[in-house]
Amino acid sequence: MAKPMNMRDKYNRMTRDLGWEPSYQPKSKIYPQIEFEGIKIENWEQWEDPFRLTMDAYWKYQAEKERKLYAVIDSFAQNNGQLNITDARYVNALKLFLTGISPAEYSAHRGFSMVGRAFPGVGAQVACQMQAVDELRHVQTQVHTISHYNKYFNGFQDFRHMHDRVWYLSVPKSFFEDAQTAGPFEFITAISFSFEYVLTNLLFMPFMSGAAFNGDMATVTFGFSAQSDEARHMTLGLEVIKFMLQQHPDNVPIVQRWIDKWFWRGYRLLSLVAMMMDYMLPKRVMSWKEAWEMYFEQNGGALFEDLARYGIRMPKYWEVSVQEKDHLSHQTWATFYNYGHAAAFHTWMPDAEEMAWLAAKYPDSFDRWYRPRYEHWIAQEKAGHRFYNPSLPMLCQTCQIPMLYTDMDDPTQVVYRSTEYQGEKYHFCSDGCKDIFEHEPEKYVQAWLPVNQIYQGHCGGATVPEVLNWYHLRDGQDNRDYLYSEDRQNWLRWKEASSQLETT
Amino acid sequence: MANNMVYLALQNNEDARPIIEAIAEDNPHATINHYPAMVKIDAPGRLTVKRASVEEKLGRDWDPQEIQINLISISGNVVESEEEFAVERLS
């Protein structure tokens, strides 16, 4: 009997040996996208896969993950798990997740299918194919899990339609479309390295741990099931970066510029996560500020110390992200509270206990800049004048977020940056977003900005009810204050009914 | 001071518990942090998960690749062999 192959031999047989030298077409015709970005690869054989995962092992482990996940989802549904969450306000975080993040998983699936086809190296092809299947699994498991909530709560019913239309959902949508319309090397730097390796821990670790803390065992299970693939994705991201940097010195400045760009794009996208952590979880695990310190400043710092040997430095404007950690979640939530009539989830003001938590976590900013504003809005609401902002905000041309971020030296002043291109003026929320535009203006002038599209008459009409109708957002059910929502009324009714059952 | 921290984060469940115990014994320089549903293990330089140690705890054969089922996240460069799964810093 032949001796069993060791891991490395087995891996090589199952991946590299799948490749072949083409005989009747030149490689440049088979892989036409591989040169235009300027990345020089001398030898694809030098690609090292840190996870030597063969396809048979891949299916075995993924099947095991699926079995565990669907057992939890079944038991969650059978036992009315939705009644065990801390408070129905929590469900609004899931609405934002399903409308904003799950379709992005699908975009990632498409992106990895495309780059897996674009790369000539077999190791890279196999890793990208596995990731493409993973991302498809993520969107499916998220839709399956959250479909249970759709039976009981508003706002979930048309998530795919909303993703392509609703103003704040253009932020994650345009982020992934920006990556997918780049070349293959930029895509993989954007998604595998900058997003997966540097930033997604912020989404999945504290937020999913938060889901567990708030009694949502279904969400924590799909979250950690997805995240278990993420360890492999992150490793791919780091490998891609090291591979490009080792192949040719000319690659270093190109890769550095992509890291700068996609760090800033991803950081801006995480504003939504900052707000979910600090405001949308009734029981909180850690603040956005603490998470940023743990996952970016400490672990990101160690990562970039490693990469210094290749000539890579920390991403440009990382210092701004550190300055903004005292303000990011508050400014974002305040903006959604202003536009709660046009959001597909409910908004609210934190209660006294939650404000005390925010003040303790943000001693340098909350009581001074944000509590007075909230107390004013609460008083207005009590007097029957709940403030909904009737105007449409100016959007940043790059990240598509309303111009809401302030100057860190004076948090009363909104940052406005602008530039001219071919006789038109374009506006930005930050120097980071302005730099990105100025490097590729011909790309970003084409941005589908929701506010501009409404004014141009492309979104169902000129009034808010017409636009909401076009979004498939049901006014009075899906939007506005949690306090007066059907969700809350139903929740109180169910909780009362179940507590009566327990006492009999 | 140079920052050379690495981490492994695992689900806090029955499958992962022997792995976490093995890591704690084989990596005395590590700090074990408990969060809701998650255990995050931090260490300077390197963290090693040894096949033999996990097999000893489990009382059955264990392939280091099985760690992927309960692994939540990592920081560091992955080094994988038949005998161990490790994350480490280059410097």
UniProtKB/TrEMBL annotation, chain A:
Q: Which Gene3D superfamilies match?
A: Ribonucleotide Reductase, subunit A
Write out the entry's keywords from A to Z.
Answer: Monooxygenase, Oxidoreductase
The family database entries (Pfam families) matched by this protein are listed as: Phenol_Hydrox, YHS
CDD domains, from UniProt? AAMH_A
Q: Which residues form the YHS domain?
A: 406-448
Q: Which InterPro entries match?
A: Ferritin-like_SF (IPR009078), Phenol_Hydrox (IPR003430), RNR-like (IPR012348), YHS_dom (IPR007029)
Q: Does the keyword NADP apply?
A: no
Protein name (record): YHS domain-containing protein
The scientific name of the source species is Candidatus Competibacter phosphatis
UniProtKB/TrEMBL annotation, chain B:
Q: Name one Pfam family in it.
A: MmoB_DmpM
Which GO MF term does the entry hold, naming one?
Answer: monooxygenase activity
Q: Does the keyword Transmembrane helix apply?
A: no
Question: InterPro entries from the xrefs?
Answer: MOase_MmoB_DmpM, mOase_MmoB_DmpM_sf
Keyword list (alphabetical) reads:
Monooxygenase, Oxidoreductase
Identify the stretch annotated as signal peptide in this record.
none
Q: Which family does it belong to?
A: Belongs to the TmoD/XamoD family.
Q: What is this protein called?
A: Monooxygenase
